[in-house]
């Protein structure tokens, strides 16, 4: 089924001259560049990279067949190997145009197997007798040897992302010696041995570079070994064995990926997933080393999903022979002419294309039925937010079985990630406010990945529309909303008032006032000013909501002004006055606000009582019962005189 293709080739590949029209095609893993080299008279080179900035075309003197060609970082210097003994260098720096120099390897009788740039002007020669680390000094037309190491080398592998090189040593090739490079320094790391499969004697098995790949997974460097077992063994199926290669300490075997078949394989790493391509079945499978298999040993993994082919890809026809109406030509997937490079690159030299392999998350949803495992898988992927939210919506809309326990599991997994982000953000904020401490490294602000699904996301994309569904039991809707609130409380995340509002509206809509009362009484719904205001608005439907609201505002203790406003708006002027006296705020309240409210009741005795209270307050605070001009109570004094007469005004006490 086409909708089940969870791997695809990128839509905009790097296109270059195919192998039939050039002499050689080379790929530089550090710069992600393809070099198409055509000889004859002068050597023409066309370089294509991931974007136009990395694309360049030039000609060189034909000094022999090109065996290897690479730019240094930033296309500053071109290195070309034509012989087993030396490498030529050509400047592409504007200040040193066309400067050239050449460097032979230092070790006598050694042959150069290849070279790798570690910086814009630092390069490693790998020979069959060891490695030589140089700095290129173009202005002096020479190279300076920074460090070298003698060791018999069968083949090598370089990881540009970490600047670590692996050298295959010993007769069987299975003892690997890593070296790390950084800012002009070369560090020898502990060597380690790849455990080869047992084969019947007298046969001997050698480790080749086809069986090894090096890539970063979840921020850690791994050596991946494609282990083919002998057909005479109990389990002849191949497996991928992962060795973690730390900067400090020795390399250790950490994971085994079970391929459950035999044949020819190739490896990629995409979005921290190990992708294993199987040529004969033309399918690929993916592994997530952070997913634990309940029925497997701790570090043994089965494929996350069933094997599927890469999504069909069509190559548009180009050139003078192309006609606008001609349909694109289907690309031959899993072709024998494909070359796979780390982490996520597939090159077809015969067709002239470089693709980036991509994971499509939506098709994985229907292939992974266990919702808890699906969430664990999705939360670790780069572009996961909208897929996770769609899974939540689908789960609640009755399309999936499992009910509330499954919903609870999903909410808990989402909120755990949410909580970890909030804690990291809080730690960062505290560190920034306290300033840098001596000896501590500068902190980076936590990155908010798409895996952080906050309350606003859930409300907007899932819960709001779910709560309005007519074909779903209101009891289930309320249970789901409460489950999400429980999950937030469990990890001590403050629940936003709009989630409580959803619950209250559902309860009121279905006349579940007893439940509402209980939720408030037992503080299942946390106190907040917006919630108290919502309760006030419900008084006409549910009269006790008024008192519940006031009780909530009192508990908040910072909501005194709101309580007074609520009581005055309901013409409970004496109640408002009693409340403000009970919290000790009566000396600072506005006399005019209370007198306005008393006048609006049309109750003259109430107005008299309130007016007299403020006269007494004025006398106590200022020694005079009169109102200050700034209080703007003149109209109320006039009204008082009209109704009760001048003699009713409190007289100033003279001593």
Automatic annotation (TrEMBL):
Leader sequence segment: none
Segments crossing the lipid bilayer: none
InterPro entries: RMC1 (IPR040371), RMC1_C (IPR009755), RMC1_N (IPR049040)
Domain annotation Mic1: ranges: 381-628
A biological process term (GO) from this entry: regulation of autophagy
GO cellular component, one term: Mon1-Ccz1 complex
Residues of the Regulator of MON1-CCZ1 complex N-terminal domain: 25-143
Protein name: Regulator of MON1-CCZ1
Organism for this UniProt entry: Hucho hucho (huchen)
């Amino acid at each position: 089924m086409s909708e089940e293709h969870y791997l695809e080739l990128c839509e905009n590949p790097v296109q270059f001259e195919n192998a039939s029209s050039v002499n050689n095609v080379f790929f530089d893993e550090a710069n992600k560049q393809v070099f198409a080299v055509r000889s004859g008279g002068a050597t023409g080179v066309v370089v294509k990279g991931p974007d136009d900035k990395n694309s360049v075309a030039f000609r060189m003197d034909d000094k022999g067949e090109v065996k290897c060609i690479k730019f240094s970082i930033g296309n500053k210097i071109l290195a070309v190997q034509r012989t087993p003994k030396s490498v030529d260098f050509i400047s592409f720096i504007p200040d040193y145009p066309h400067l050239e120099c050449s460097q032979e390897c230092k070790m006598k009788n050694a042959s150069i197997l290849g070279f790798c740039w570690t910086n814009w002007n630092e390069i490693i020669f790998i020979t069959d007798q060891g490695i030589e680390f140089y700095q290129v000094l173009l202005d002096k037309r020479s190279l300076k040897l920074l460090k070298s190491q003698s060791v018999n080398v069968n083949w090598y592998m370089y990881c540009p992302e970490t600047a670590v090189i692996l050298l295959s040593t010993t007769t069987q090739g299975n003892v690997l010696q890593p070296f790390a490079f950084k800012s002009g320094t070369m560090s020898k790391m502990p060597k380690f041995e790849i455990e080869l499969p047992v084969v019947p004697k007298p046969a001997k098995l050698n480790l080749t570079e086809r069986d090894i790949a090096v890539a970063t997974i979840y921020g850690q460097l791994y050596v991946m070994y494609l282990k083919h077992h002998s057909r005479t063994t109990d389990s002849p199926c191949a497996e991928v064995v992962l060795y973690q290669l730390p900067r400090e300490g020795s390399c250790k075997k950490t994971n085994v990926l079970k391929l459950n078949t035999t044949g020819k394989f190739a490896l990629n790493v995409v979005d921290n997933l190990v992708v294993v391509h199987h040529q004969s079945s033309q399918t690929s499978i993916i592994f997530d080393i952070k997913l634990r298999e309940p029925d497997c040993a701790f570090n043994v993994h089965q494929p996350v999903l069933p094997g599927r082919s890469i999504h069909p890809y069509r190559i548009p026809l180009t050139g003078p022979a192309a006609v606008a109406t001609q349909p694109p030509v289907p690309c031959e997937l899993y072709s024998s002419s494909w070359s796979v490079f780390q982490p996520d690159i597939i090159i077809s030299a015969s067709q002239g294309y470089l693709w980036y392999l991509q994971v499509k998350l939506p098709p994985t949803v229907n292939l992974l039925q266990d919702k808890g495992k699906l969430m664990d898988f999705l939360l670790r992927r780069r572009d996961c937010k909208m897929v996770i939210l769609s899974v939540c919506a689908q789960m609640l809309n009755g399309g999936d079985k499992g009910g509330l326990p499954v919903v609870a599991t999903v909410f808990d997994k989402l909120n755990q990630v949410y909580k970890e982000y909030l804690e990291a953000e809080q730690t960062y904020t505290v560190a920034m406010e306290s300033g840098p401490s001596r000896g501590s490294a500068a902190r980076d602000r936590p990155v908010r990945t798409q895996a952080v699904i906050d309350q606003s996301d859930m409300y907007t994309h899932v819960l709001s529309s779910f709560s309005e569904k007519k074909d779903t039991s209101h009891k289930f809707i309320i249970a789901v909303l409460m489950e999400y609130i429980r999950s937030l409380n469990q990890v001590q995340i403050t629940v936003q008032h709009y989630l409580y509002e959803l619950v209250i509206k559902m309860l009121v809509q279905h006349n579940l006032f007893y439940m509402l009362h209980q939720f408030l009484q037992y503080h299942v719904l946390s106190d907040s000013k917006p919630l108290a205001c919502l309760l006030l608005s419900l008084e006409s439907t549910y009269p006790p909501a008024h008192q519940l609201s006031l009780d909530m505002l009192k508990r908040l203790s910072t909501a005194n002004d709101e309580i007074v406003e609520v009581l005055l708006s309901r013409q409970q002027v004496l109640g408002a006055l009693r409340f403000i006296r009970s919290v000790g705020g009566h000396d600072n309240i506005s006399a005019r606000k209370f007198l306005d409210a008393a006048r609006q009741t049309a109750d003259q005795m109430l107005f008299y009582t309130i007016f007299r209270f403020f006269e007494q307050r004025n006398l106590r605070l200022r020694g005079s019962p009169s109102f200050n001009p700034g209080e703007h109570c003149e109209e109320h004094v006039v009204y008082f005189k009209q109704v009760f007469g001048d003699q009713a005004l409190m007289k100033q006490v003279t001593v």
